[in-house]
Design a protein that fits this description.
This protein is 35% helix and 30% strand. It has 394 residues and is of the alpha+beta class. It has a seven-stranded antiparallel β-sheet with strand order 6-5-9-2-3-8-7, with no helix packed on it. Strands 17-18-19-20-22-21 form a six-stranded mixed β-sheet, with helices on both faces. A four-stranded antiparallel β-sheet has the order 10-11-16-15. The N and C termini lie far apart (85 Å).
């Protein structure tokens, strides 16, 4: 059984241990400070006998360390060191996560935590719903107040059947065993957790939530930073805000309102452009080739949806569409409801010659080229080949 130093003192990062097993790349020790991961926190890395420890895992009562290329033998005494900078950063992040979710829980009592991820590179908590930035802001302020108050962080062990467990945040279905480790942070938060944490909240320095993103069916991931990383990111975001205010000609206090107005104007303009594009497509007059209506044209638009819908409609009515969109690049959509016309073959031939590519199905294909100046040439080449194909079918 490995004695786990990190359970007693997470600040110990150098120690001497005796090897109890050595199997291929994995070794176990009689005592270890290497944390194998848990509570959303990644496992420790470091060195044993100067060799890299690339992974740590727990199996039963033993902690195993992956040390590629080692020649360590059973009963060897080995000097070990945990990557302290990495470990400490994750301790800060894990403690801050407790405070952050606890604060969110006070703002939104029925919110649930789905996942936690704490590494040196990324820190976030996934919750089961979207959360307004005003709510996140209040939770963030609450965390930083707890940091400024320098609350103590303590750990106790409680029985699963203890009546007081009902008042403690815990995912009981995820916890094995009769006894549960509970982490208490002053009067700010109390939760079941097997991770490792700092001794006082003041060590965190500060916390900033810098983004939230959809986590799909799981909900939303709220990303945060701590310490000097949080200060650096705060300054970056403040500078971005000042630049946006300058571009909009707005006061910094009004920048959110100004951006909202610009967004509304953009959405309105986009709707108007889409409506105009639909009318333009609907008003196209076909060129009749061998009694088949061929609708073709070059349009300055990025509205692929409107063009695709028009091509599908023309195809369903037995016609042929050759529609080119000029934007940052040149896109081509071709559809056909006429037998004997293979859109995929025609587009591939023309676009490959122009340095682009295209493909799809016989009755619907699409592709493009980077050089928008080739629009006229490509349009004429497609129509020319199309005429030849249709005449051969007559």
């Amino acid at each position: 059984m490995s004695i786990r130093i990190y359970e007693q003192d997470a600040y110990v990062f150098e120690f001497e241990g005796t090897v109890t097993s050595a199997d291929a790349e994995w070794i176990s020790l009689d005592i270890t400070a290497f944390y194998p991961g848990g509570g959303g926190q990644m496992n420790d890395l470091g060195k044993i006998c100067g060799l890299d420890v690339t992974e740590v895992k727990v199996k039963g009562d033993e902690i195993y360390h992956k040390v590629p290329g080692h020649s360590i033998r059973i009963n060897d005494k080995v000097w070990c060191s945990v990557d302290w900078e990495r470990r400490y950063d994750m301790m800060l992040g894990h403690t801050a996560e407790h405070l952050l979710f606890g604060s969110l829980k006070r703002e939104v009592p029925d919110i649930e935590i789905v996942k936690i991820f704490i590494s040196q590179e990324s820190k976030y908590v996934v919750v089961d719903r979207d959360v307004e930035w005003d709510v996140i802001g209040r939770a963030q302020n609450s965390v930083n107040k707890a940091v400024n108050d320098n609350m103590s962080v303590s750990k106790i062990t409680m029985s699963r059947d203890d009546p007081e467990m009902k008042d403690i945040r815990a995912k009981m279905e995820r916890i094995d065993g009769e006894y549960i480790t509970v982490v208490e942070i002053g009067d700010a938060d109390i939760a079941a957790c097997s991770g490792i944490h700092v001794r006082e909240t003041g060590e965190i320095g500060c916390l900033i939530v810098d983004r939230k993103v959809s986590a799909g069916k799981d909900g939303y991931a709220i990303h945060f930073r701590v310490g000097n990383d949080a200060l650096r990111r705060s300054m970056e975001l403040a500078n971005d805000c000042l630049r946006i205010a300058d571009v909009l000609g707005a006061k910094t206090d009004d920048v959110v309102k100004a951006v909202s107005n610009v967004k509304h104007e953009l959405e309105t303009g986009t709707k108007q452009l889409r409506s105009a594009m639909k009318r333009l497509l609907n008003d196209m007059q076909p060129l009749t080739i061998c009694n088949i209506p061929v609708y073709s044209g070059i349009f300055e638009t990025n509205d692929r949806t409107a063009v695709t819908d028009a091509a599908e409609k023309i195809r369903s009515e037995g016609g042929i569409a050759v529609l080119l969109m000029v934007g940052d690049t040149l896109s081509v959509i071709m559809s056909s409801g006429a037998k004997g016309v293979d859109c995929s073959v025609i587009l591939k031939e023309v676009l490959t010659k122009a340095g682009g590519r295209g493909g799809g199905k016989r009755d619907f294909a699409q592709g493009g080229v980077a050089d928008v100046s080739l629009s006229d040439t490509i349009h004429k080449d497609i129509v020319r080949i199309l005429k030849s194909v249709l005449k051969q079918e007559v």
